[in-house]
Design brief:
- The chain is α/β, with parallel strands linked by helices.
- Among the domains are: 1-162, Leucine-rich repeat, LRR (right-handed beta-alpha superhelix), CATH 3.80.10.10; 512-623, Ribonuclease Inhibitor (Leucine-rich repeat, LRR (right-handed beta-alpha superhelix), Alpha-Beta Horseshoe).
- Mean pLDDT is 95; it is low at 1-5.
- It has 22 helices and 22 strands.
- The protein is flat and about 65 Å long.
Length: 623
């Protein structure tokens, strides 16, 4: 293998089933020569024990290219971490990222890792110990390492580690240390509580604190904790730019307190996650005030899963239309909003100070076609800067598609990504959308239509759009629609056209048979084909289908980089066809996914041989 082919090694690619022989200490040992040349090693959920850690320790010292090791969901245990730690302290070890999530670790492991952090040879900048029963005493040990002059750690993840408010005192001390390098701390799903938040804030507002990202999802924080956080945000030493308080019972009173911090000139917060925080329209009023502040730095706000209702969105929109508002991303999934929210949102999009670029309205069932019609008025406005719009599961039909097509044809349209998945779009809706895709003003690059009742006729409508000399789409997702072979035949005529710029095509579960493979092969052979990624997962292609597909893969015009054929009823014969195609055209395919096909070893070995040969570009083989 060449150096490029060894940027990443994933043991899971060599055995999909959890009990596969490849997913074991013995399986890893057989692959050590490959691991010893890899830059990033993924050993996720591979049934590994301390036996593997002994072997990996030698690799950490000998492989100077290895900078990331992912070991989560393995029974490594404290003894395994002890073995790894001796290598991490070695002067030849260059590892920067270590993931030990859910590895059956206790306080002992933290003792070994604390020694690593103090070592003058340690290169570690990121450590994930999430989902281990560490408890407070263990993290107290780690905190002493964080305060050491040799420590270079910037990211520490401690999700669901059985921690309480007690540990916050030690962590705050580490943040106050003049040697502190920590920039991101994740304490998600620990019992931090308001008292812990108060302790932690004494570190956040210290002059030595360099923390930029703090994740406190599900930490039992209430309005009292928000008071402490607001105080930290107001501090002239505050460097926090990202804060996640999702799944905490903050309520409107908590958000009101938090907003006082957001409005302060010293606050640098850019990303605020408040998913499922029991916020109503009153909380939206406080947030709107924060958005209107002339010192507001907020760029992203996520309010998913809160009972905002239309009144909440109306309140929020008063902030969105303000000249001081700099918000670019707004998440309003599952917020119980209806068409009545769409007019104020459209007003926000059309405001001459509008900065919104991404809007998520997923699973707001009351929006419907009339709501989309109102929203489209904003999309067509000259001031609108929106580039991404997610409308999954909003009960949109062909009538809503008509409004969106009109927006796409507007000379003011900036929309680049549109997700209409889980709506009853149907063929008639696709026909209408296609008129928008063909228009000279349309700039759309990605369109998702998963579970949209799309059938054979849509293949013709989309193919027509593909042939337009104004066609800009780069990615199309038609997963889980009954296109069938006839739909694929019609779609392929457009894929072969010189104007078609499509690079990524997702066709998961589209009821294809071997016939579709013939049409796809024709598209891949076309001298105008630009497809680089093709997903055909969960289709009844069979060996005969892959044989037909291989005719396209072996052609010099084929530019396919990634091919996913998971769960396509393949056998060893398909491996033979694919190996033959790769030998004919070695310059293209890099990733091949054949999982859930029950392939036997002889078939896999045909492809594995090509993966190991530097002549071929195949770097990732999953089976």
């Amino acid at each position: 293998m060449s150096d490029l082919e060894l940027e990443e090694f994933d043991l899971g690619d060599y055995g999909r089933q959890f009990d596969s022989p490849a997913r074991s200490d013995e399986g890893l040992l057989t692959m050590l020569p490959v691991v010893n040349k890899s830059q990033r090693v993924i050993l996720r959920s591979c049934n590994l024990t301390e036996k593997s850690c002994a072997a990996l320790s030698s690799v950490l010292i000998s492989n100077h290219r290895l900078n990331e090791l992912i070991l989560h969901w393995n029974n490594v245990g404290d003894s395994g971490v002890e073995l790894l730690s001796t290598a991490l302290e070695h002067p030849d070890c260059r590892l920067e990222v270590l993931n030990l999530r859910c590895c059956n670790l206790t306080e002992k492991s933290c003792s070994f890792l604390e020694s690593v952090l103090r070592s003058n040879h340690s290169s570690l900048t990121q450590l994930d110990l999430s989902e281990n029963s560490l408890r407070d005493s263990a993290v107290e040990l780690l905190s002493t390492g964080l305060e050491h002059p040799n420590c270079r750690l910037e990211i520490m993840q401690l999700r669901n580690c059985g921690l309480t408010d007690i540990i916050c005192s030690s962590l705050a001390s580490a943040l106050r240390s003049k040697h502190s390098t920590l920039k991101e701390l994740d304490l998600t799903f620990n019992d931090v509580g308001d008292s812990g938040m108060e302790l932690l804030s004494t570190g956040l507002d210290h002059v030595n604190c360099k923390l930029k990202t703090l994740k406190l999802q599900g930490c039992r924080i209430t309005e009292m904790g928000c008071s402490s956080l607001a105080s930290a945000l107001r501090s002239n030493n505050s460097r926090l730019t990202e804060l996640d308080l999702s799944i905490n019972n903050l309520g409107d009173s908590g958000v009101m307190l938090l907003s006082t911090g957001l409005q302060h000139p010293n606050c640098r917060l850019e990303i605020l996650q408040l998913e499922e925080c029991h916020i109503t329209e009153m909380g939206c009023s406080s947030l709107a005030s924060a958005l209107t502040s002339n010192t507001s730095s907020l760029r992203e706000l996520n309010l998913t899963g809160n009972d905002l209702g239309d009144l909440g969105v109306i309140q929020l929109s008063t902030g969105l239309v303000h000249p001081n508002c700099r918000l670019e991303t707004l998440g309003l999934q599952l917020c119980k909003i209806t068409e009545n929210s769409c007019e104020p949102l459209a007003s926000a999009l059309s405001a001459n100070s509008s900065s919104l670029k991404k809007l998520k309205l997923i699973y707001n069932f009351g929006i419907g076609d009339s709501g989309v019609g109102l929203l489209s008025n904003g999309l067509e406005h000259t001031n609108c800067r929106l580039e991404t719009l997610w409308l999954n599961g909003c009960k949109i039909t062909e009538r809503g598609c008509s409004s969106l097509a009109s927006a796409l044809m507007s000379n003011n349209s900036n929309l680049k990504q549109l997700d209409l998945s889980e709506n009853k779009v149907g063929d008639s809706g696709v026909a209408i959308l296609s008129t928008g895709l063909e228009h000279p003003n349309c700039r759309l690059e990605m369109l998702r239509l998963e579970f949209c009742n799309v059938m054979e006729m849509s293949g013709s409508y989309l193919a027509s759009a593909f042939t337009s000399n104004h066609f800009s789409l780069r990615e199309l997702n038609l997963n889980n629609n009954n296109l069938r072979d006839l739909g694929m035949e019609r779609l392929s005529t457009g894929l072969q056209h010189p104007n078609c710029r499509l690079e990524i095509l997702r066709l998961y579960g589209c009821d294809f048979t071997e016939k579709s493979c013939s049409f796809i092969a024709s598209a891949l052979r076309s001298n105008s084909s630009r497809l680089t990624k093709l997903v055909l997962v969960n289709n009844f292609l069979g060996d005969s289908g892959v044989k037909l597909l291989s005719i396209g893969l072996e052609h010099p015009n084929c530019k396919l980089d990634t091919l996913k054929l998971r769960c396509c009823f393949l056998t060893e014969k398909s491996c033979s066809s694919l190996a033959s195609a790769l030998r004919s055209n070695p310059s293209s395919l890099r990733q091949l996914d054949l999982r859930a096909n029950g392939l036997n070893q002889p078939g896999v070995e045909l492809l594995s041989a090509l993966q190991k040969d530097p002549t071929y570009k195949l770097t990732k083989l999953q089976y």
